[in-house]
From TrEMBL:
Name the record gives this protein: HIT family protein 1
One GO MF term attached to the UniProt entry: adenosine 5'-monophosphoramidase activity
Motif (Histidine triad motif): 87-91
Gene Ontology BP terms: nucleotide metabolic process
Database matches in SUPFAM superfamilies: HIT-like
Origin species: Drechmeria coniospora (Nematophagous fungus)
Domain HIT: from-to ranges: 1-102
Residues at the active site: H89 (tele-amp-histidine intermediate)
């Protein structure tokens, strides 16, 4: 547990006006940490762009500071997507070997190229 207001203690690694980074209390591997925007929003789309400017640079510094050479950056949105905390957060999970870190089973699929082209055009038109 953590609290941006400081009511719940955390193993703080970095803090600025916009961003907080701290160790995960249920780590999947040594160095597993969270980086969060201080602006509250449940999902990524809820956070204004200007409140996200430090997230990737902080994750990059965290990777270097932990010495991780293989790692996952993970951010979930919504219960069905495995989000358990109702505040945007990014995990940096070192993957030092086959047993530690994040385990992912990625189902192999082959897309229909005509459907993918149509989908691509639809998404591009809304950007």
């Amino acid at each position: 547990m953590f609290s941006i207001a400081g009511e719940i203690p955390c193993m703080k690694i970095f803090e600025s006006d916009k961003t907080l980074a701290f160790l995960d209390i249920g780590p999947l591997s040594k160095g597993h940490a969270l980086v969060i925007p201080k602006y509250h929003g449940a999902k990524l789309a809820d956070i204004p762009d200007e409140q996200l400017t430090e997230i990737l640079p902080t994750l990059k510094k965290l990777v270097a500071a932990t010495g991780a050479t293989e790692y996952n950056i993970l951010q979930n949105n919504g219960i069905m997507a495995h989000q358990q905390v109702n505040h945007v957060h990014f995990h940096m999970i070192p993957k030092p070997n086959e047993t530690e870190g994040l385990g992912i089973v990625w189902p192999a699929t082959t897309g229909d190229m005509d459907k993918l082209k149509k989908l691509c055009e639809d998404i591009k038109s809304k950007m």
